[in-house]
Every structure is written in C-alpha cells, then in structure tokens.
Amino acid sequence: MKVVDTKINDVKIIEPNVFGDDRGFFLETWSSAAFANAGLNIDFVQDNHSRSAQGVLRGMHYQIQHPQGKLVRCTSGKVFDVAVDLRKSSVHFGQWVGVELSAENKRQLWVPPGFAHGFYVMSESADFQYKCSDIYAPEHERSLLWNDSAVGIDWPLVDGVETQLATKDKAATVLSESDVFD
Description:
By secondary structure, this protein is mainly beta. It has helices at residues 32-37, 167-170; strands spanning 2-5, 12-15, 18-21, 24-27, 46-53, 57-63, 70-76, 78-85, 96-102, 108-111, 115-121, 125-132, 141-143.
C-alpha cells in the first residue's frame, strides 16, 4: 500500500495495491502489520457500513469522549470525504482536508481521533464503509456545522440536487461554539 500525506500531517490517504485482471480484482483493505510499518498503529473495535442517496451529507461528526479514529472508504459510487482538525493545540486547528473516495479509485482515508468527519454523496448512491478505533458513544457525539464559513469547506455539491441532512446535522454548531479537544 502507498500512504499519501495530506496538508494535515496526521490525516493520511491510503492507496492499496490492487491486483486485477479480466476476472476482477483483489486488494487488501486492512493489515495491522502493513499499517504499523507505515507508522499507523491502530486497533479497531467496530466496522460500519452505510448507503446513501445522491446529495446526502453525513457529518460533520465526532465524539468529545471516546474519540474515534476512522479508516473510511467508498465501495460503491463516489463521495467527497472531509476531516476537520478539532485539536485546539494543533497548528491545523479548524482546517480541513477533503478527498474524493470512490469504488473506482479504491482510496481510503485515515481520520485520526480529534477530528470531525463527514462525507457528501456525489454519485446516484454510495456505499460507505469504515473501521472505528473506539466505541460508538451517542451521548458524547457532537456535530460541527457542515457549512460553517469559519471552516470554509469547499463541498463539490451536485448542481440541481438538494443537500439532504439529518436533523442532528441541521442543528450542528459552528466551530466557535463547538466542544473541541485540547
């Protein structure tokens, strides 16, 4: 696998080795040894899978206690995936990284604990799968407003498609009013 740095050092793009021929392809999406060799020593406790329609924006979620690191990928369709640094002590506090993940490019994104995470579905639909490094703790879940101008995420919204948000994401807070990490 190839590990690609982003403008925020702790967020990594993972490009797996893909072995394909006219029958299809094979790739390894997770190997503790390979990730450890790349400096990513992560223990995962949960796998999740969501399916969403075009225009759905899920996020920007994080847990103020039991912060989760997430290894995310899109296995059907195409999404724009975003991580926002919420670590007050970081030189990148309030900055974001966005990357297109798709069934075609087979890329993954490592979003470390201390970041808000979300994605927007660009294709007709998308299956999104991710591994989490800590338990889901809904009582500690928070949402950062997806279009907070102080963060300035440049979402590639599909023309003519209404952005669909969950109730909790519509009620999300702006960065200046959000619970953040030290």
